[in-house]
């Protein structure tokens, strides 16, 4: 299935998510950033906080969703778009479906844990009662390079 085209506002959303991912890297977290936007308004944003919180569930997507839901005072975000620098994992994909997000736009593909087409496709699973529009690979090179640089720096130079 071909990817839907990027919208003009998608570049702004992914750029903001990349800024948040850079903040995560500076804090020693895996550099993933996420932002929830509706009608040009940022409802919630976050970067990974797994190290700081000592919590393996503190993914950028989950934190951004929680903040957006708190802001709107509802359990659903049908008109909102989630921008994230890395393809969502199973945990985050489940939260996205439950929050009834309208769209998900992500950068780098995650061949090890991605659930928007890489390992599986929970976001578009035909048996689920909600399936957001999904656009992967938005500014993928920049998103992937940030992750690659982070892990190379942690491992040290390769032989």
What does this structure look like?
38% of the residues lie in helices and 18% in strands. The chain is built from five helices and five strands; from the N terminus they run αββααβαββα. Strands 2-1-3-4-5 form a five-stranded mixed β-sheet. The longest helix has 19 residues, at 8-26.
Task: Give a short synopsis of this structure.
With 159 residues, the chain is an alpha/beta fold. It is 38% helix and 18% strand.
Compute the average pLDDT.
95
Share of residues in strands: 15-25%
Overall shape: it is: globular
Order of helices and strands: HEEHHEHEEH
> Sheet bearing the most strands, described?
5 strands, mixed
Secondary-structure class:
alpha/beta
Q: What is the rounded distance between the termini?
A: 40 Å
- Rg from Cα: 15 Å
Taking pLDDT < 50 over at least 5 consecutive residues as the criterion, the unreliable ranges are none
Helix content: 25-40%
Count of runs of 4 or more consecutive helical residues: 5
Reconstruct the topology from this structure.
Layout: H1 8-26, E1 33-38, E2 41-47, H2 50-53, H3 60-72, E3 81-86, H4 90-98, E4 103-108, E5 133-135, H5 140-155
Parallel strand pairs: 3-4, 4-5
Antiparallel strand pairs: 1-2, 1-3
Protein traits:
globular; 5 helices; 18% strand; 159 residues; five-stranded mixed β-sheet; alpha/beta
């Amino acid at each position: 299935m071909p990817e839907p085209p990027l919208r003009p506002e998608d570049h702004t959303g992914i750029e903001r998510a990349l800024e948040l991912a850079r903040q995560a890297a500076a804090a020693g977290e895996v550099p993933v950033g996420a932002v929830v936007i509706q009608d040009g308004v940022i409802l919630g944003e976050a970067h990974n906080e797994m190290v700081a919180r000592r919590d393996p569930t503190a993914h950028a997507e989950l934190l951004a969703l929680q903040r957006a839901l708190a802001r709107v005072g509802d359990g659903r975000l049908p008109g909102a778009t989630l921008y994230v620098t890395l393809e969502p994992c199973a945990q985050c994909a489940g939260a996205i479906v439950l929050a009834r997000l309208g769209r998900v736009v992500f950068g780098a593909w995650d061949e090890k844990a991605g659930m928007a087409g890489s390992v599986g496709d929970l976001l578009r699973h035909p048996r689920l009662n909600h399936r957001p529009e999904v656009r992967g690979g938005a500014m993928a090179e920049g998103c992937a390079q940030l992750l690659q640089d982070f892990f190379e720096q942690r491992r040290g130079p390769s032989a």
